């Protein structure tokens, strides 16, 4: 069967309570997960995109363990992937062999051999509309869903524009080589930004990227303007401010969530970064609300 024929026959799956799908045929698949316990296993050599409308999707691969939260779109083309719903969830996904994505993108700007970087974004209104439209059309076997599916594939790649600007700063003589460098760096950036672990170390991050620690620091700084640990600390500092100011979570619990060994260490770090104490921030927030 030619690639075009495979592309035009997307297979629809709806996963209810504890529903699972793992064996895949060589074509595009549209998956709607609509209940607790749903599980999807994506094989190596495939690309996929997953939009979460309700709840959270757990994500697990050899290089990432984390979640996709409500309202976010996950893109992935970096080895086998497992998605699971520990609680009630509503999500729509599109998955297919990478060569079918490339075939459909062959006439797009940039060509069809572009990788989907591991990342999460707030999808545009148009992308969300296409996700829903493709799910509805493929569910009912409508022949005209090919055009909508093609537009969705293009829109998913367009959502990567903010990530692909970093290609220019990546080392490599060819675009393919620079893409491989960016892919390895984005594994680390995705893990730092969206992973569950709050205790990240340079050796572990270097292993994720398959670089030496020294090489990772140099490349990461060249591309993103900061080292991996500087990036992780910046996110941790920002998150600590939000949790102290906008929630009633006990300070001891916040220190644990953020990844500090003790409440006192967290409070010292908080004052050093913001020039004020956690108690002062909470009093100020309470006075503002009052």
UniProtKB/TrEMBL annotation:
Pfam family, one: HTH_18
Record bears the keyword Signal: no
Keywords of this entry: DNA-binding, Transcription, Transcription regulation
PROSITE patterns: HTH_ARAC_FAMILY_2
An example Gene Ontology molecular-function term: sequence-specific DNA binding
Domain HTH araC/xylS-type span(s) in chain numbering: 186-284
Lipid biosynthesis is among the record's keywords: no
Record-linked PANTHER family: ARAC-FAMILY TRANSCRIPTIONAL REGULATOR, HTH-TYPE TRANSCRIPTIONAL ACTIVATOR RHAS
Protein name: HTH araC/xylS-type domain-containing protein
Organism: Arenimonas donghaensis DSM 18148 = HO3-R19
């Amino acid at each position: 069967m030619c690639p075009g024929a495979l592309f035009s026959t997307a297979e629809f799956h709806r996963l209810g309570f504890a529903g699972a799908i793992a064996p895949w045929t060589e074509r595009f698949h549209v998956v709607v997960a609509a209940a607790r316990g749903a599980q999807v296993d994506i094989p190596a050599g495939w690309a996929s995109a997953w939009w979460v409308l309700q709840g959270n999707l757990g994500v697990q691969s050899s290089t990432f363990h984390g979640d996709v939260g409500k309202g976010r779109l996950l893109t992935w083309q970096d080895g086998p992937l497992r998605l699971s719903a520990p609680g009630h969830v509503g999500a729509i996904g599109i998955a297919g062999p990478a060569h079918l994505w490339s075939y459909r993108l062959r006439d797009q700007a940039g060509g069809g051999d572009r990788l989907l970087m591991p990342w999460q974004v707030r999808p545009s209104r148009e992308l969300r509309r296409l996700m829903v439209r493709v799910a509805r059309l493929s569910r009912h076997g409508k022949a005209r869903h090919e055009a909508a599916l093609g537009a969705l594939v293009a829109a998913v790649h367009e959502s990567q524009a903010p990530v692909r600007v970093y290609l220019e700063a990546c080392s490599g003589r060819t675009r393919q080589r620079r893409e491989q460098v960016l892919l390895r760096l984005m594994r680390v950036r995705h893990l730092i930004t969206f992973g569950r672990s709050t205790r990240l170390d340079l050796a572990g991050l270097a292993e994720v990227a398959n670089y030496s620690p020294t090489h990772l620091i140099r490349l990461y700084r060249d591309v993103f303007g900061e080292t991996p640990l500087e990036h992780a600390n910046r996110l941790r500092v920002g998150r600590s401010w939000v949790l102290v100011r906008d929630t009633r979570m006990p300070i001891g619990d916040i220190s644990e969530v953020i990844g500090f060994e003790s409440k006192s260490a967290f409070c010292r770090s908080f004052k050093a970064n913001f020039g004020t104490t956690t108690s002062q921030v909470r009093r100020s927030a309470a006075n503002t609300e009052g």
